[in-house]
Amino acid sequence: MNRILIIGSGASGMAAAISAAQANSSAQITILDGLDRIGKKILATGNGRCNLTNAQIAPGHYHTQNTARLNELLADMPAERPLTFFRELGLYCTEEDRGRIYPYSRQASMVLDVLRLALRRYHIQIQQNCTVRSLSVDKKVFTAQTESGKTFCADAVILAAGGRAAPKQGTNGTSYPLALQMGHRYARLYPCLVPLRCGQQTSMLKQLKGIRVICRATLFDGKQKLTEELGEVQLTDYGLSGIPALQLSCWMNKPIQEQAYTVRLDLFPDWQHNELRSILQQRVKQYPTDKIEDNLLGLINKKLLFAALETLHLTPIDRPSSSLKRQDIDALVSLLKGWDFPITGVQTWDHAQVTGGGVFLNEIDNRFRSVKQPGLFLAGEVLDIAGDCGGYNLHWAWCSGITAGEAAAEYIAHE
Ligand SMILES: Cc1cc2nc3c(=O)[nH]c(=O)nc-3n(C[C@H](O)[C@H](O)[C@H](O)COP(=O)(O)OP(=O)(O)OC[C@H]3O[C@@H](n4cnc5c(N)ncnc54)[C@H](O)[C@@H]3O)c2cc1C
């Protein structure tokens, strides 16, 4: 009994294969992947630089239905874990701002190169163009059948076939039916780290398309504040993008049509309402004959300012500043400090970086063994977990893969 089959050659699948080979030199390991090349997604990560983990791993950077289980699992996953794994493979890393860790070469291709080299060193078989359609088990032997009719048998299986996000990189959700076939259930899937759509404001957004603004973005569900992010929001013709908007999407785990999600932008996060108000009042007082459009120059992006004046019907903007009443300035301050963008949807799975939801975390044990099916292990994004931007998703993929690989190697040695 020594065959381990790994479904998926992404981050978690490759880490699982290498750690299984390191733990059990007699293991015969085969990876199946639907794509014609391995690790395609890794090349796209971190804008081609691969933000592979983070020095500040903490539960607060992850989203799941089961935070208690997440805390237990993350306790065994310090940042040092993937760093040690990669250092042993010859890859050196470096830390940038906010704990983000990259390969020293800042090349995602280098990460893939060292993984491929390790797969070769350990004689791990890789079968490409093999999309697994069904998985069954009989008398402790697993059988995986591919779309093209090939059959692979094994004594242990690691399901590392990712989620639904970025389907062009091989992940279109075929992992979940395989989990169901093994008796698992999964939490509702939703796209995460994805731009937000604001359908009702399309005509205004078309004028603001391309503007980037450092602001505080706060997400509300009705009147309830869910979370906030500070950073550079990008206005697009359909809605909001940029890291703060992507991060907020991870909190939208309920059907958007049924929710009243709103993003409130504070375009002056460094100033209190009264500070901004006195600045505006002072400028109007100092230059009362200046046109409104000229008087307010130098504060924020011109197009944004004009859109704010238009939204408040403080037009025409070429009239003298002295025509602005006290309540007009109050209204302008309120809008600039709290501009509401009702969310009508998110971009498609093609634009999402990760998948929210997935196989319930209480259906695996601390070593990523299935509690439903002995000999089955699950790793990576197929599980109910989505991380923030910053290396948290790859961290989860490597660590869960390493642990699942070790546990599978142990399983075949003892059964
Ligand atoms: C553009 C982009 C940039 C990103 N940047 C970062 C970043 O910088 N830092 C970070 O932490 N995270 C990043 N992520 C997220 C991160 O890449 C993923 O969370 C991580 O790769 C998930 O690893 P995984 O092994 O679970 O799945 P994946 O890496 O998605 O691999 C799954 C593999 O399984 C294969 N597969 C799927 N179904 C089947 C099947 N039925 N049969 C056979 N094979 C199958 C797929 O072809 C794929 O190769 C990024 C994601 C994207 C899309």
Describe, in plain words, how this protein is organized in 3D.
The chain starts with a strand and ends with a helix. The strands form 6 sheets. A 7-stranded antiparallel beta sheet has the order 18-17-14-15-16-13-19, with helices on both faces. A 5-stranded parallel beta sheet has the order 7-2-1-11-21, with helices on both faces. The chain has a 3-stranded antiparallel beta sheet with strand order 3-6-5. The chain contains 13 helices and 22 strands. The protein is elongated and about 85 Å long. The protein has 2 domains: 3-191 and 353-414, 3-Layer(bba) Sandwich (FAD/NAD(P)-binding domain); 195-346, no CATH class. The chain has 415 residues and is of the alpha+beta class. The protein binds flavin-adenine dinucleotide. Flavin-adenine dinucleotide is lined by residues 7-13, 32-35, 41, 44-46, 50-51, 130-132, 160-162, 165-166, 170-171, 174-175, 353-354, 380-381, 391-394, 397.
What profile does the largest beta sheet have? 7 strands, antiparallel
Principal-axis shape: elongated
CATH architecture of the largest domain: 3-Layer(bba) Sandwich
Question: Tally the helices: what do you get?
Answer: 13
Write down how many β-strands occur, each being a DSSP E stretch of 2 or more residues. Answer: 22
Residues in β-strands, percent: 15-25%
Rounded to an integer, what's the Rg over CA atoms? 25 Å
- The chain-level mean pLDDT equals 96
CATH C-level name of the largest domain: Alpha Beta
Counting structural domains, the number is: 2
CATH superfamily of the largest domain: FAD/NAD(P)-binding domain
**CATH-defined topology of the largest domain:** FAD/NAD(P)-binding domain
Contiguous uncertain segments of 5+ residues: none
Alpha-beta classification: alpha+beta
Task: List bound small molecules.
Answer: flavin-adenine dinucleotide
Distance between the first and last residues' Cα? 7 Å
Percentage of residues in helical conformation: 25-40%
Order of strands across the biggest sheet?
Answer: 18-17-14-15-16-13-19
InterPro entries: BaiN-like (IPR004792), RsdA/BaiN/AoA(So)-like_dom (IPR055178), RsdA/BaiN/AoA(So)_Rossmann (IPR057661)
Signal peptide: 1-23
Domain RsdA/BaiN/AoA(So)-like insert: 190-354
Protein name: Aminoacetone oxidase family FAD-binding enzyme
